[in-house]
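This section describes the prediction task in plain terms. A model, or a person checking by hand, is given the sequence of a single protein chain and must write out its three-dimensional structure as a string of tokens. No templates, partner chains or ligands are provided. The sample shown here is typical of the held-out split.
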Amino acid sequence: MSLYYNKWAQYLCFARGQIFFIVLGDALHSTPSYLPPLHVAKTAKKLGILVISDEVYDHLAFGKNPFVPMGTFGSITPVITLGSISKRWIVPGWRLGWLAVNDPNGILKEHGIIDCIAGHISLSCDPPTFIQGAIPDILGKTKEDFFLKIISIIKDNANSCYEGLADVPGVVCPSKPEGSMFVMAKLDLSVFEDIKDDLDFCLKLAKEESVIILPGITVGLKNWLRITFAIEPSALEDGIKRLKAFCERHSIKA
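The expected answer:
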């Protein structure tokens, strides 16, 4: 089983009552939930365990807390980092990723973990040939101004989304996004007269307004909404207007 170590994305993994590793992830890819990496590393060392860090969204951060690779602290405790090209390089659907081991003290190798990982590489099919062929240029020739432009666009959209949701009845965004491409918003069901839960909300919204929002139940948060802002600003503005119209139409009339 797993126990959430932070409100959203950090948790401890247990088996038979024993802690085996800490997972740091952006499973919801959205709400800012920050633990200082150094604190995490020291906690893991104290427990005698490793850290698995999901950094698929790594540098897509634009809040007060800068992105710091967890592997920076590999000398304190072993770190396995998960990465991919789909988010930072904006190529959704190109499913190619990697595991990076940060363990200068050789603890994982000593206990056979590296050999175990290597032994399971062949369980997955190789990515398409054209993706493999493009990788050297994607990783080696993408200029820094590309990343800066992407972050600027996403940050502006995040602010617009957060401000727009403030005027939508029954949808509460508890904090401004500081990274990623999504935001989690809480549904206040007491506002609505004919909405049962987040799934019901999203199905009716799609049917009536042609706006697609992921119900929170799909990521383990019942009666929350997972809203993306990684779209054209004009489409985002139109989508929020439709969302607001939908919520007003289904609200309890005074």
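For orientation: The radius of gyration is 21 Å.
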